[in-house]
Amino acid sequence: MQRFCFALDLVDDPELIQEYENYHSPGNDWPEVTQNDRDAGITNLQIYRTGTRMFMIMDTDDDFTFEKKAALDATVPKVQDWEQLMWKYQVPLPWAKAGDKWILMDQIFQSGAKKTE
């Protein structure tokens, strides 16, 4: 298993934040998008929010690569539709490169078990 953690901001608008959370509430997922994630090797995906800052934990199988995920995403129109829709709510972090959304975070501390790479 691999684990990746990401950060992203939301537009600072309570109504838009509520809409965003509604899209992510149980039963409102887009089956084509979640299936694409599974096909790419994502085994668990969690998103947390405080204010406008979001944190995502993504667990994957050992064969997962970002290149494989991007290639699959490009072949599923619903994934492209989802990503375009989400831009309505999302704001790149100030240090993100143009077009980047979720920014991979560096693990700087872990207590107990060995630090993951």
Automatic annotation (TrEMBL):
<dbReference type="Pfam" id="PF05336">
    <property type="entry name" value="rhaM"/>
</dbReference>
<dbReference type="GO" id="GO:0062192">
    <property type="term" value="F:L-rhamnose mutarotase activity"/>
</dbReference>
<dbReference type="InterPro" id="IPR011008">
    <property type="entry name" value="Dimeric_a/b-barrel"/>
</dbReference>
<dbReference type="InterPro" id="IPR052996">
    <property type="entry name" value="Carb_Metab_Mutarotase"/>
</dbReference>
<keyword id="KW-0413">Isomerase</keyword>
<dbReference type="InterPro" id="IPR008000">
    <property type="entry name" value="Rham/fucose_mutarotase"/>
</dbReference>
<protein>
    <submittedName>
        <fullName>L-rhamnose mutarotase</fullName>
        <ecNumber>5.1.3.32</ecNumber>
    </submittedName>
</protein>
